[in-house]
Amino acid sequence: MTKKVLVLLAVLLLPMAFSAPTNATIQEGASERYPETTSPGNVTAQAGNVTQVNVSSVQVTGKWVGFWGEVSGKIVLGDSSGNIFYQWTITDPTGAVVYVCNDTVSDWSSLQPLYANSGVLPSFLLTGTDSFNNTFTEQEQFASPSITIDNVNYTYTWQNGTKGTDFKTYALYANETATTGKIILVWAGKVKANQPSFKGTAITADYQALAGVNTEGGQQTFYFYLELP
After folding, report:
1. SS3 string of 29-55?
2. What is the pTM of this model?
3. What is the dihedral of CA 184, 212, 152, 229, to 10 degrees?
4. Are 111 and 152 spatial neighbours (Cβ–Cβ below 8 Å)?
5. CA-atom Rg of the chain in angstroms
6. CA-CA-CA-CA torsion for 216, 217, 220, 223, nearest 10 degrees?
7. Hey, which residues does 89 pair with through a beta bridge?
8. pLDDT of residue 6
9. Parallel, antiparallel, or unpaired: how do β-strands 138-143 and 148-159 relate?
10. How far apart are CA 160 and CA 108, in angstroms?
11. Cα-flanking dihedrals φ and ψ of residue 205, to 5°?
């Protein structure tokens, strides 16, 4: 009887660890921008004439940013000094999730679906052709290795010149008002290894995630978390 009690106490005294997204180490590559028209078109017209002028333009959005790349990682068992007792290497990251957040997340259990009427989106993300509603047009259950949330809006990003079906981004937010006082936008990119990227079939990616900014046209710091399969 005594041995059983001692074993039980030893288990209870172990730090509680739950599967959840963890801080991600990143290696930043080049940041690129779609080329904009450098000068306006012009027409020389004769007074009294009527001239047909068809006008078109390609504008770069000031509301969204894109992240893409490869995913790798490992699961370890070890001590506080970094000594490995056992290690599992991820050979295929398919099923992992890259979380792109506009602030640090403390409570992953507070994740909720992000809707246009949630009251947490910046107002400029609710208007225009590139609005949230015109972007995140699909809806389904979001499921990661540790998180399941129903009725989450998502979108696909482009692959090889067209809208693909491999890379989904889900729209979520963490409601930490009761603990840290923060509302955090969370853009969750599903991982599918070695798929054609938006750059074409010759350049593959493991994920592509679309994220909304806080200030239209401005710079913003994003925080990355990774949940391995």
Report:
1. CCCCCCCCCCCCCCCCCCCCCCCCCCC
2. 0.88
3. -80
4. no
5. 23
6. 70
7. 74
8. 34
9. antiparallel
10. 34
11. -145, 160
Kindly state the helix (H) or strand (E) to which residue 155 belongs, with its residue range: strand 148-159
Identify whether the C-beta of residue 176 lies closer than 8 Å to the C-beta of residue 160: no
133 secondary structure, DSSP code: H
Nearest-CA neighbor of 90 among 70, 112, 105?
70
Q: What is the pLDDT of residue 138?
A: 97
Q: How far apart are CA 53 and CA 181, in angstroms?
A: 53
Banded model confidence at residue 19, pLDDT cuts 50, 70, 90:
low
User: Measuring CA to CA, how many Å separate 45 from each of 13, 39, 48?
Assistant: 85, 19, 9
Closest CA to 203 of 32, 7, 52: 32
User: Cα(150)–Cα(134) distance, rounded to whole angstroms?
Assistant: 20
Q: How far apart, in whole angstroms, are the C-alpha atoms of residue 175 and residue 181?
A: 8
